[in-house]
Design goal:
Elements: E1 6-7, H1 9-17, E2 23-26, E3 29-30, E4 34-35, H2 37-42, E5 49-50, H3 53-56, H4 72-81, E6 90-93, H5 101-110, E7 116-119, H6 122-128, H7 160-166, E8 168-171, H8 175-178, E9 196-197, H9 213-221, E10 230-233, H10 239-249, E11 255-256, H11 260-264
Parallel strand pairs: 1-7, 2-5, 2-6, 6-7, 8-9, 8-10, 10-11
Antiparallel strand pairs: 3-4
Helix pairs in contact: 5-10
Length: 273
């Protein structure tokens, strides 16, 4: 059985106590303010390195969407700067409930690094457990991370409509955005024809921690018929990674459409529902 892609605050603290600290990446980010370096500077898990989602985990916005995948050179440089090497165990976290941290988890897998886990419940869970917070910058030696064969799948924009017709394309945004009733971020409202809505908010409990795998399996099982493949998108390809993580917990392998809705609507000839 594969190890869980999640780690609890207690498990992470135990690794510190045993002198087996992993590389810890703070990926705090919100739609309202973007990458939250100020939050990191105000207090973070000891030894954690701040990773800027906008600059390090995404390419420049444009035809491929608001948060296209970063190129290999950018991502490798960011991981090395954060002290990540090929043999590093990595833990990623955000403020909770891991919607940004999951992007780091997915990208590390996309660039071939399998030893990565997400802090379940994020910094909020760490603080609630009574573990210490640091405010001083953490200095680490540069890592030797290299990109290797991918451990994650992507769905190309040209294949999206055929995929949605023959398989299950999940839209991870809020229901009102899926229905096109509101659109707070992108210039066009709606969704990709054939997609099925399954908000990421349904992946976690009231404390921002992932639901038990059995619960997730029951939920996703009702959306994914036997024998069908699964792909996920959201607004810009960030929170969709959270959905892919939840699907993995449920035992379902899923691909990411990286451009997501913000990339889809850059071509006015693509249909919208």
């Amino acid at each position: 059985m594969s190890p869980s892609p999640l780690i609890s605050a207690a498990e992470l603290h135990d690794l510190f106590e045993m002198g087996r600290a992993p590389a810890v990446l703070d990926i705090r980010f919100t739609l309202q303010i973007g990458s939250d370096r100020a939050g990191y500077e105000a207090g973070h898990i000891p030894h954690a390195q701040f990773v800027d989602l906008d600059a390090d985990l995404a390419g420049p916005p444009g035809q491929r969407g608001r948060h296209p995948l970063p190129d290999e050179e950018t991502f490798v440089a960011a991981m090395r700067s954060a002290g990540v090497s090929d043999d590093s165990s990595v833990v990623v976290y955000d403020g909770g409930p891991a919607t940004a941290a999951a992007r780091g988890w997915w990208l590390l897998r996309y660039y071939g690094h399998g030893d990565v886990r997400v802090l379940d419940g994020g910094l909020a869970h760490w603080v609630a457990a009574g573990f210490p917070i640091g405010t001083e910058p953490s200095i680490v030696a540069a890592g030797s991370f290299t990109a290797r064969p991918s451990l994650a799948r992507v769905l190309d924009v040209d294949d999206v409509l055929d995929f949605a017709r023959d398989n299950v394309l999940l839209d991870a945004r809020a229901p009102e955005r899926f229905r096109g009733e509101v659109e707070p971020v992108d210039p066009v409202a709606g969704h990709i024809p054939g997609a099925v809505n399954r908000p990421t908010t349904e992946n976690v409990d009231s404390d921002g921690r992932f639901l038990d795998p059995e619960v997730l399996d029951g939920t996703f099982g009702g959306l994914v018929p036997a024998g069908k493949d699964v792909a996920v998108y959201c607004g810009s390809g960030v929170t969709a990674a959270h959905q892919i993580l939840a699907l993995e917990l449920a035992g379902i392998d899923a691909a990411l459409y990286p451009g997501s809705w913000s990339g889809w609507i850059t071509d006015p000839t693509r249909p919208r529902a």
